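Chapter summary example.
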Amino acid sequence: MKLKDKRIIQLVSNDFEDLELWYPVLRLREEGAIVDIVGEKAGEKYIGKYGVPIMSDFAFSDVDPGEYDAILVPGGWSPDLLRRFDQVLQMVQHMDEHKKPIGQICHAGWVLISAKILNGVNVTSTPGIKDDMINAGSIWHDEAVVVDGHIISSRRPPDLPDYMREFIKVLTNN
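The structure predicted for these 174 residues follows.
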């Protein structure tokens, strides 16, 4: 198993894009990673856009990002909620400062924008937030997945296999 003993934060709030949260969690667990679901409250049920639930393991305040190897931000409408929490932005900033993998897909770029870590970074996202990404200083590409150092970005659910292949590669080499 490529990712045995790797610990990953999977951020969550309501209205996440179901596949963009669940697919990465399952793929990473298949590779032996420990993926903790982290939301505003521990033991809380969060519901995806299409009704698929997930239970959080920990609250934002319970986790020390220094104990983790990577972080994932889901897509859907949940990034607009997640970016309102200073603890979320601090986790993302910590990962950026320590060059640990940060995965973002679809609208997840909003969290990285609010964390102010995209200046000069090559990224992709859903085309719907292309202007937001560019206005934050990033270099936007319309590609299935873009890797710029430790930041791995993707557009939408059909790109998930490419996204996870590259995320796992970066995490394995980190």
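To summarize the output: The helical segments are 18-30, 78-82, 86-97, 109-114, 130-135, 160-173.
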